[in-house]
Please model this.
Amino acid sequence: MQVDPRVPRFSAMITTAILAVVLVTGSGWLLAVQAVLFALGAAGVSPYRPLFRLLVKSPPAELEDAAPPRFAQGVGLVFAIVGLVGFIAQIVPLALAATAAALLAAFLNAAFGFCLGCEMYLIVRRLLPAAFR
Model:
Protein backbone atom coordinates (compact mmCIF):
# COMPACT_ATOMS: atom_id res chain seq x y z
CA MET A 1 0.00 0.00 0.00
CA GLN A 2 1.25 3.48 -0.89
CA VAL A 3 0.53 6.80 0.83
CA ASP A 4 1.02 10.47 0.09
CA PRO A 5 4.07 11.29 2.27
CA ARG A 6 2.59 14.68 3.12
CA VAL A 7 -0.33 13.13 5.03
CA PRO A 8 1.78 11.60 7.86
CA ARG A 9 3.61 14.90 8.28
CA PHE A 10 0.30 16.79 8.37
CA SER A 11 -0.96 14.27 10.94
CA ALA A 12 2.21 14.81 12.97
CA MET A 13 1.46 18.54 13.12
CA ILE A 14 -1.94 17.91 14.64
CA THR A 15 -0.56 15.18 16.92
CA THR A 16 2.12 17.59 18.13
CA ALA A 17 -0.54 20.11 19.12
CA ILE A 18 -2.68 17.50 20.87
CA LEU A 19 0.24 16.06 22.84
CA ALA A 20 1.43 19.54 23.80
CA VAL A 21 -2.02 20.24 25.23
CA VAL A 22 -1.86 16.93 27.13
CA LEU A 23 1.44 17.97 28.70
CA VAL A 24 0.16 21.44 29.62
CA THR A 25 -3.17 20.28 31.01
CA GLY A 26 -2.30 16.80 32.27
CA SER A 27 -5.42 15.50 30.56
CA GLY A 28 -5.50 11.73 30.54
CA TRP A 29 -8.75 11.87 28.57
CA LEU A 30 -7.14 13.79 25.74
CA LEU A 31 -4.25 11.32 25.74
CA ALA A 32 -6.83 8.53 25.46
CA VAL A 33 -8.28 10.26 22.39
CA GLN A 34 -4.79 10.48 20.92
CA ALA A 35 -4.25 6.79 21.67
CA VAL A 36 -7.36 5.98 19.61
CA LEU A 37 -6.03 8.16 16.79
CA PHE A 38 -2.68 6.33 16.96
CA ALA A 39 -4.53 2.99 16.84
CA LEU A 40 -6.45 4.10 13.75
CA GLY A 41 -3.22 5.21 12.10
CA ALA A 42 -1.52 1.91 12.93
CA ALA A 43 -4.48 0.11 11.35
CA GLY A 44 -3.99 2.12 8.17
CA VAL A 45 -6.89 4.51 8.67
CA SER A 46 -5.62 8.07 8.67
CA PRO A 47 -8.17 10.16 10.56
CA TYR A 48 -6.65 13.37 9.16
CA ARG A 49 -6.50 12.32 5.48
CA PRO A 50 -9.97 13.80 4.67
CA LEU A 51 -8.99 17.14 6.22
CA PHE A 52 -5.67 17.08 4.35
CA ARG A 53 -7.43 16.39 1.04
CA LEU A 54 -9.82 19.27 1.72
CA LEU A 55 -6.93 21.68 2.34
CA VAL A 56 -4.37 20.42 -0.21
CA LYS A 57 -5.52 19.97 -3.79
CA SER A 58 -2.19 19.22 -5.49
CA PRO A 59 -1.26 15.60 -6.15
CA PRO A 60 1.84 14.22 -4.45
CA ALA A 61 5.10 14.23 -6.38
CA GLU A 62 5.53 10.60 -5.38
CA LEU A 63 4.06 8.00 -3.07
CA GLU A 64 5.81 6.04 -0.34
CA ASP A 65 5.34 2.70 1.37
CA ALA A 66 2.67 2.88 4.08
CA ALA A 67 4.37 0.34 6.37
CA PRO A 68 6.89 2.70 8.06
CA PRO A 69 4.31 5.39 8.95
CA ARG A 70 1.90 2.70 10.20
CA PHE A 71 4.68 1.26 12.37
CA ALA A 72 5.40 4.76 13.68
CA GLN A 73 1.74 5.13 14.64
CA GLY A 74 2.01 1.83 16.51
CA VAL A 75 5.03 3.12 18.41
CA GLY A 76 3.08 6.27 19.24
CA LEU A 77 0.24 4.08 20.48
CA VAL A 78 2.62 2.23 22.83
CA PHE A 79 3.84 5.52 24.31
CA ALA A 80 0.26 6.78 24.65
CA ILE A 81 -0.74 3.60 26.47
CA VAL A 82 2.23 3.91 28.82
CA GLY A 83 1.22 7.52 29.43
CA LEU A 84 -2.36 6.45 30.14
CA VAL A 85 -1.15 3.83 32.60
CA GLY A 86 0.83 6.59 34.30
CA PHE A 87 -2.23 8.83 34.54
CA ILE A 88 -4.48 6.02 35.77
CA ALA A 89 -1.94 4.80 38.35
CA GLN A 90 -1.24 8.42 39.31
CA ILE A 91 2.42 8.05 38.40
CA VAL A 92 2.58 11.51 36.89
CA PRO A 93 6.29 11.42 35.93
CA LEU A 94 5.67 8.25 33.88
CA ALA A 95 2.62 9.80 32.22
CA LEU A 96 4.43 13.00 31.35
CA ALA A 97 7.63 11.27 30.20
CA ALA A 98 5.77 8.92 27.85
CA THR A 99 3.70 11.79 26.49
CA ALA A 100 6.81 13.94 26.04
CA ALA A 101 8.56 11.13 24.14
CA ALA A 102 5.61 10.81 21.77
CA LEU A 103 5.50 14.60 21.44
CA LEU A 104 9.18 14.73 20.55
CA ALA A 105 8.75 12.12 17.82
CA ALA A 106 5.68 13.88 16.41
CA PHE A 107 7.45 17.25 16.50
CA LEU A 108 10.49 15.89 14.65
CA ASN A 109 8.19 14.69 11.87
CA ALA A 110 6.06 17.83 11.80
CA ALA A 111 8.91 20.34 11.89
CA PHE A 112 11.71 18.56 10.06
CA GLY A 113 10.10 15.70 8.14
CA PHE A 114 12.13 13.21 10.20
CA CYS A 115 9.94 10.26 11.13
CA LEU A 116 11.63 8.60 14.10
CA GLY A 117 9.20 5.67 14.07
CA CYS A 118 9.82 5.16 10.34
CA GLU A 119 13.54 5.00 10.99
CA MET A 120 12.90 2.50 13.79
CA TYR A 121 10.88 0.43 11.31
CA LEU A 122 13.82 0.26 8.92
CA ILE A 123 16.21 -0.76 11.72
CA VAL A 124 13.86 -3.45 13.03
CA ARG A 125 13.30 -4.69 9.49
CA ARG A 126 17.05 -5.07 8.99
CA LEU A 127 17.48 -6.84 12.34
CA LEU A 128 14.44 -9.12 12.00
CA PRO A 129 13.90 -9.64 8.25
CA ALA A 130 11.89 -12.85 8.71
CA ALA A 131 9.21 -10.96 10.69
CA PHE A 132 8.46 -8.75 7.67
CA ARG A 133 7.91 -11.42 5.01
Observations:
- Helices lie at 6-25, 28-42, 49-55, 67-88, 92-112, 116-127.
- Residues 2-132 form one domain.
- The chain has a mean pLDDT of 95.
